[in-house]
Design goal:
The chain is built from 9 helices and 20 strands. It is an alpha+beta fold. β17 and β18 form a beta hairpin. α2 packs across α3, α2 packs parallel to α4 and α3 packs across α4. The protein is elongated.
Length: 379
């Protein structure tokens, strides 16, 4: 049952700015959200977004990421807690008073307006007209590589072009912050990957702060400075992409970010600065990550590409194991191996195609991995 204490209602704009850490654009302080008074969709959210960064909220459907974005944008109000934008409490401000640009999955373009009219709509709302508005519209369209298309209507554009129009509209009035909610979800794979690069380049060139919501892990890893992984209304981990991938902090993050093997093990001690775990069949592995008490149950996390064939290419690898090949899958430059190891556990490995071309199901092979690539998880 949630805490039913609600925020005191205040008049808009009657609070002075609050001192926040230098370089901070957005702060969530103890934010909660419920729609029914019982279940918390967002639970005790504390998060600081740095000025000029690209922060992605990543998670499965129902994890709370979109609700968090909507609260920041002003389309939802928190049940408890505060949201600060440049030190100003904004949780009761309407969207139009937050100086925030928005880009949504469905583009939300006006079909009866031209491209230029769509892009210029926020300027008209703010009283910018005439030549000044025209210059800013042209600059915004040029920035998204749509110069010369201002007189077309949205129906005459491709999906990627319509998304660019939505991005230009979000940037044309020079907002403090841009929010993007699954903006590439309707595009095909090739165009989506191209737009990922373009959006990131624009964000870096302008130095603008962007908060981006997606359920696509590769999209988040490609574009983000930091990623907040949401699950069941809480941030499970907030890290840069490399740390998030290589050092997951719990089982959910390890399983949600990319392919991973998560296997039950027993912690039995330390050796040469590494943890030592015992697998189901008695195999000992050297590991990194949190240590447990002796004889406690843990989970070991191992990425498929970090598990290699014992061909001499991984000299110094501390861990060796024997496996039976269950299935091979050709993926172009790599081969995916489904293996049976550790006394009946199924393990996935990804090896270069040149090394794995001769491997057939039913064969026995030796695999190796470094201790640094075997990470223990306690939760």
């Amino acid at each position: 049952m949630m805490n039913t204490m609600t925020l005191e209602r205040r008049r808009l704009g009657d609070e002075p700015p609050i001192r926040t850490a230098a370089g901070t654009m957005v702060v969530f302080e103890g934010v909660q959200k419920t729609y029914d008074g019982r279940t918390l969709v967002v639970e005790d959210l504390n998060l600081a977004v740095r000025r000029g960064e690209f922060l992605t909220m990543l998670g499965p459907s129902g994890s709370g990421k979109t609700t968090t974005l909507m609260m920041l944008g002003g389309f939802e109000q928190p049940t408890n807690g505060r949201i600060l934008l440049e030190g100003q409490a904004v949780e009761r401000l309407p969207p139009e008073r937050r100086d925030i640009g928005f880009v949504f999955q469905n583009y939300a373009l006006f079909p009866h307006m031209t491209v230029s009219e769509n892009v210029g709509f926020p300027l008209r709302y703010r009283g910018v007209k005439g030549a000044a508005a025209g210059r800013r519209i042209e600059e915004a369209l040029a920035m998204v590589k749509l110069g010369g298309l201002g007189e077309r209507r949205p129906a005459q554009l491709s999906g990627g072009q319509q998304q660019r129009v939505a991005l230009a509209r979000a940037m044309v009035f020079n907002p403090k912050l841009i929010l993007m909610d699954e903006p590439l979800g309707a595009l095909d794979k090739q165009l989506r990957e191209h737009m990922q690069i373009e959006i990131k380049q624009i964000q870096q060139r302008l130095g603008i702060t962007m908060v981006y919501v997606t359920h696509d892990q590769s999209e988040a890893l490609t574009m983000s400075d930091r990623i907040a992984v949401f699950h069941e209304g809480r941030i499970q981990q907030l890290s840069d992409p490399v740390t998030l991938y290589d050092q997951p902090e719990n089982r959910f993050v390890a399983g949600f970010i990319g392919d991973n093997n998560t296997l039950a093990c027993e912690f039995i001690g330390t050796e040469n600065g590494f943890g030592v775990v015992r697998m189901k069949d008695g195999t000992r592995l050297l590991t990194t990550g949190p240590a447990g008490q002796s004889n406690t149950s843990l989970t070991v996390s191992l990425r498929p590409e970090r598990l290699g064939l014992d061909t001499g290419n991984r000299q110094g690898a501390e861990n060796r194991l024997q496996a039976r090949v269950v299935e091979t899958t050709f993926l172009g430059d790599r081969i995916r191996l489904t293996l049976e190891a550790f006394g009946g556990e199924y393990v996935v490995a990804s090896v270069p195609a040149a090394e794995g071309a001769s491997i057939v199901p039913g064969s026995s092979i030796d695999m190796v991995c470094f201790a640094a690539d075997c990470r223990t998880l306690t939760r």
